[in-house]
Automatic annotation (TrEMBL), chain B:
Keywords: Dioxygenase, Oxidoreductase. It holds the Pfam family Dioxygenase_C. Its EC number is 1.13.11.3. It is an enzyme of class 1 (oxidoreductase). It comes from the Bacteria. Belongs to the intradiol ring-cleavage dioxygenase family. Residues 38-112 form the Intradiol ring-cleavage dioxygenases domain. This is Protocatechuate 3,4-dioxygenase alpha subunit. NCBIfam families: protocat_alph. GO terms for molecular function: ferric iron binding; protocatechuate 3,4-dioxygenase activity. InterPro entries: Intradiol_dOase_C, Intradiol_dOase_core, Intradiol_RC_Dioxygenase, Protocat_dOase_a.
Amino acid sequence: MEQKSRTHTAVRPNVVVVTEAVRASSDAAATTQAEIGAEIAAIAATRTGEETQPRLDYAPYRSSILRHPTKSPYQADPEAVELFAPVFGPQDVDPLEADLTIQHLGEPIGERIVVTGRVTDGDGKPVANQLVEIWQANSAGRYLHQRDQHPAPLDPNFTGVGRCLTGPDGTYRFTTIKPGPYPWRNHVNAWRPAHIHFSLFGSEFTQRMVTQMYFPGDPLFGLDPIYQSIVDPAARDRLVATYDHDVTLPEVATGYRWDIVLTGGHRTWSESA
Amino acid sequence: MIGASGTNHPVSRPTPGQTIGPFYGYALPYEGGPDLVPKGHPDAIRLHGVVLDGAGAPVPDALLEIWQADRTGDVPRKAGSLHRDGHTFTGWGRASTNNVGEYSFTTVMPGAPFIAMTVFARGLMNRLFTRVYLPGAADPFLLSLPPDRRETLVAEKDAGGLRFDVTLQGDRETVFITYPGHS
């Protein structure tokens, strides 16, 4: 963190210039955390008001450089199927899939946790009987995925995939193991804060969302270009769960609460932000 | 601009999206996900194409979902997409791209102008919405687009059904859609 190289970014009022060399090469191997930090800070300085979603064009996350749309989206009034969401039911999801600690013969290693909360729309209306899917690394920060070659152990008793349906009041609930942080190759010595991926459906197609839940106080937040791609601190704070002792189960698991508010339903036209 | 729940209700701020990342492959795709109808179904068509990045390179780690009306135009209201019984048309499917960026769904021609599609990928910070219009279909939204952009939303008829490529960035960039209420 002592390095002071700022060669890749320059700041003008409300303009971030990332050099063509960076954009063209996206050569992560040579970029330092300090350089990524400077890019993150330069982009953060361009924010002029509330933002509620990540920037799609966010070069500090190198893989986004060639994968973000450069043309403005068109707004469409939702029609026909878009006014409805796919339906999932008990035939789709076994209640046992909500417990990621019982999928194998033995107990997984790590800190057992309960993660629960409510899925609602912007007006606070619950999203009932809807599918929630999660996936995550194990307690050592390793995913059960062939592309994850991080030299941390796999846990034979932990897959890291769960599903459930929300209840009538929009409540979801998972029992799992607290995931570890893990290294990735965005830049030199890049580490992701511990997180659980969430896939969510609303009561309308337009509310479909995938996101990540984080744990309070993670020291990696400020360094992580994926978390920081949500440039407004108030918005990214909404991805951080709260420790809740009322959710904690005596002698079994600590408890976290994380509520999810979906955007884009036609019932929430009042939200124009 | 009046909220459905009245003026005194505190409107909750939306939860931001995040990229799907590189490791969803063992979690989200599932057996039968791309097959809304069995491949041997008499009305089966193939909806397929390639996902490309801004350099024209295939995107091997994208995930697409489609949601559509049935052949008569009705919106399915039936569960069973995750464990398909081979008979019930649920209208929803999910397909990953392969290592050369190709995806393929087996479905039926909807009795509607378009199939709704959601795009996810590693490196894509948030999901994108688009529409796969059937060849020859037209509606006010499609007609409102500049002609060169319009064609990015229209599938091509081919031997097995429909071809629809998704281009995330560049001259041939697919038209992506936001809806009212999206922040």
